[in-house]
Amino acid sequence: MNSLQKQLPELSYKALYELPEAVLWFDENADFFEVNPVACEIWGYTRAELLQLSVFDINPNMNREIWAAHWEAKQKDASTFESTHRRKDGTIFPVDITDNFVELNGAIYSCAIVRDITKRKESDRQARLSDFTVQKAGDAIFWLCPKGNIKHVNDEACQRYGYSFEEFSEMNITSIYQSTTTSDFQEIWKKLKTEQQVVFESEHFTNTGKRIFVEVSSHYIQFEEMEYACSMVRDISERKQKEAALRGALLEIRELKEKLEAENNYLQEEIEVQNNFGEIISNSPKFKKVLKQVEQVADTASTVLITGESGTGKELIARALHQLSRRSKRPMIKVNCAALPANLIESELFGHERGAFTGALAKKIGKFELADGGTLFLDEIGEMPVELQPKLLRALQEGEIEPVGGTNFKQVDVRIIAATNRNLTKEIEKGNFREDLYYRLNVFPIHSIALRKRKEDIPLLTRFFCEKLGNKLGRKITDIPQKVIDKLLAYDFPGNVRELENLIERGIITARGGKLSLGDWFSPRKKIIKSENFLTLETVQRKHIIEVLKYTNWKVSGDNGAAQILGMRPTTLNSRIDKLGIKRSKEVE
After folding, report:
1. Same domain, residue pair 36 and 106
2. Which of 1, 302, 462, 534 is the most buried (most CB within 10 A)?
3. Kindly report the CA angle at 337 between 334 and 341, in degrees rounded to 5?
4. Are 408 and 353 in contact (CB under 8 A)?
């Protein structure tokens, strides 16, 4: 029987010995006086071993100075405090100590009831960790009751929305989720209780009225017999902006791709089309004035209206205007208004949306949009239907187009060049052409001269076409007889340069030994003229000689001189010039 058992009543000792908590008795020197079995189990010592130790052996934070102060201060009242102890194997663990100082047979002892609070400490630590994590989470977290009232939020919610904890506690979720009502929230709650979790995107508003896009992941939970919707709210505004920017970029890329493909297809078609002219061929003083006009207006953005008979090279002038302009790096898009059915011209010019009309199976980019940054050549503009002319006028005035079936206007930067072989003023009088559109197109008019009015270009054009078409047909022309030139000069060419080109091509086909021949089939059409329009032979000779002299810059003899072109001796031509009274100083250049 130990000393404590001797000094305590049997019942008291038995109760102390069988307590479920560890009981440690120390004397004034901090030595163990008595322990119960639970203490032995917790610290890992036998009773005999513990009785050989002191409080300094199990409490790493205790020393004699602290013990002395503790002994002196705590003798009157019991105290409870936390500390850390060390087991026999050296592990440190937290304890909760209730220390009682008792007097027994004239001696003072410390009777400490000690509890191992490792599990409680870990639970508290985990709770603190969880709370810290929730408060510092990057997402706003809301705890809502079934009515949508806000019961609790984390720090992030306060910072993001600009409300305090107290303000949130008096609010309903509809205050920030303004697109939903209380009844809407009830439907969400029902779904949440059934599925336990719902995820959706919505728009929230801060206390300043700023709209933010959010992704909500809401979970149904029960805590202490209460139901909650625990909603984690992530700000996805930046992601939405990037998605919108990406969609815009993808749309722009798709439109650019479609435009590039359409432009490429158009250029491929243009490559396959045989152009009447590779370049402008002329020595005519009259035509040089036309070229001067081209140089004057080419580098501007002004609209140009090219008039003239068919076959005079109006498209060639348009191409020259484009190539000399600042837009030459962009394409010149051509639309022949006479070659398209009236019901397709609008779609061809302005494009159409998918499903805009029967057969519109895909979106089409119009010629206006295709020519954006470049030039749009409207050939045969006089053939455009009257009902479409107002839309064309708007495109010219406002620089914007509306695709067929579309709802939005598109801005375009297009330089317009139009051409016609019609007399538009007469078409206006007939009601076939709008006067306002005419004046909008006729900013800078250029008239392409008929070939019969610049016959001095016929020899040059003949040689040019012989070389061009000879290469094409695989036949080289080395001899162009003067009688062929004379026949061509005597013809008025109602079909203009295009007709001349056709005649030369036929001549190359029938040529033998590299000698150009027009063939017996060449029978120029006779002009039907009235008797009062007849001129005297002398007048005709005088006029023709003057035209040839102007062409040769008044060179009479030698290669390419007027005498050679007219098939006359230089002396004979000089005599004819004197006889007809032709003087260079009197003739208009």
Report:
1. yes
2. 462
3. 125
4. no
Phi-psi category of 186—alpha, beta or left, where left has phi over 0 and alpha has psi -120 to 50?
A: alpha
Residue 26 DSSP class: E
Q: Which of 427, 442, 457 is the last residue of a domain?
A: 442
Three-class SS of residue 401?
A: strand
Q: What is the DSSP string of 444-491?
A: EEEEPPPGGG-GGGHHHHHHHHHHHHHHHHT----B--HHHHHHHHT-
CA 445 remoteness from chain centre: 39
Helices (H), 54-146: 55-58, 64-73, 118-135
Question: Residue 326 has which token pair?
Answer: 């600042």
Rounded CA separation 146/523 (Å): 102
**pLDDT value of residue 4:** 58
pLDDT recorded at residue 271? 41
Give Dmax (Cα) for the chain.
Answer: 172
pLDDT, tens digit, for every residue of 372-414? 889 999 999 998 888 888 888 888 888 888 887 777 788 889 9
Entry field: residues in the chain: 589
Residue 521 within any structural domain of the chain: no
Identify the residue whose tokens are 């302009």: 325
Is residue 476 a part of any domain in this protein? no
Sheet strands (E) in 400-475: 400-401, 410-411, 415-420, 444-447
Asked if residue 55 belongs to a domain, the reply is yes
pLDDT > 50? residue 1 = no
Distance CA 110, CA 71 (A): 8
In this predicted structure, the answer to whether residue 227 has a pLDDT above a threshold of 50 is: yes
Residues 463-511: tens digit of each pLDDT: 999 988 888 888 888 888 888 888 888 888 898 998 899 999 998 988 8
Residue 393 or 131, more confident: 393
Range of the domain at 548: 533-589
Map tokens 């036949």 to a residue: 475
CATH of the domain at 563: 1.10.10
**DSSP assigned state of 86:** E
CA distances from residue 573 to 182, 211, 542, 548 in whole angstroms, order as listed: 109, 94, 11, 11
Residues 335 and 436 in one domain: yes
Average pLDDT along the chain: 83
Among residues 307, 366, 378, the alpha carbon closest in space to that of 336 is found at 378
Total count of domains within the chain:
4
Question: Does 9 fall in a domain?
Answer: yes
Residue that finishes a domain, picked among 414, 442, 470: 442
pLDDT, residue 439, reads: 92
Four-point Cα dihedral 27, 33, 34, 40, nearest 10: 100
Same domain? For 96 and 227 the reply is: no
Chain centroid, CA 569 distance in Å: 73
Domain identity same for 402 and 364:
yes
